[in-house]
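Q: Please design a sequence for this.
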């Protein structure tokens, strides 16, 4: 009888589930359905656990400081404090913070901005579930996780010259559908000066016309339709 009890105790001690050191994760996204979906995926993994959720950037920082998770899944665009601002705040308090940026935006500027801010990975929200899970495990080990399509975007972005503040203003006007005259009026510059800046924009973006320049700028993340409105 003692032998049977001893074997049972030994079996319990060797149980794999009791030895799993789970990756503690915070999910920060302003859309409840996204948080629920990510939470269900994380909870389906024996080596992962959701310790908290946040609906905006400020909450994300607060929960990060409270729970000190292993990995943070962070949305890029949230109210009160955006993902980049939240990321900066986390790294200021904990330089070793491991943050994965999740976004619907795949523009070059968003990707570069996230990595410059200190993100360990950048994934689109429509990425395959296995890719997300692998990125979580990779980042937890202290490594960067850059999917091939994101790496290709980063490489392509290195070939585009940085736009000046004035060029960005004019580009926003173009996306909003303003004419050269309207852009000049809103910025307080001559229409001829606007044309000169647009010529520089075409050259930097590798565009041959206004429509192509707007398309490239949107794809690369220099501007967004939601950010541009007539003045």
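A: Design:
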């Amino acid at each position: 009888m003692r032998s049977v009890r001893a074997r049972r105790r030994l079996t319990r001690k060797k149980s794999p589930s009791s030895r799993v050191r789970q990756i503690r994760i915070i999910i920060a996204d302003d859309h409840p359905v996204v948080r629920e979906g990510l939470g269900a995926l994380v909870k389906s993994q024996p080596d992962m656990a959701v310790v908290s959720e946040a609906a905006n950037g400020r909450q994300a920082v607060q929960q990060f400081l409270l729970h000190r998770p292993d990995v943070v899944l962070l949305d890029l665009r949230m109210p009160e404090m955006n993902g980049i601002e939240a990321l900066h705040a986390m790294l200021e308090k904990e330089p070793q913070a491991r943050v994965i940026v999740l976004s619907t935006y795949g523009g070059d500027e968003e990707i570069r901005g996230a990595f410059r801010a200190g993100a360990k990975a950048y994934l689109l929200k429509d990425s395959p579930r296995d890719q997300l899970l692998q990125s979580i495990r990779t980042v937890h080990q202290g490594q960067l996780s850059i999917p091939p399509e994101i790496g290709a975007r980063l490489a392509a972005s290195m070939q585009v010259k940085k736009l000046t503040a004035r060029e960005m203003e004019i580009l926003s006007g173009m996306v909003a559908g303003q004419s050269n005259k309207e852009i000049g009026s809103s910025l307080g510059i001559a229409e001829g000066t606007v044309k000169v800046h647009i010529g520089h924009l075409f050259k930097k973006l590798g565009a041959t016309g206004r429509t192509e320049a707007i398309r490239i700028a949107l794809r690369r993340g220099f501007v967004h339709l939601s950010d541009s409105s007539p003045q």
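Q: Thanks. Anything notable?
A: The two ends are 85 Å apart (CA to CA). The domain at 165-227 is CATH 1.10.10.10 (Arc Repressor Mutant, subunit A).
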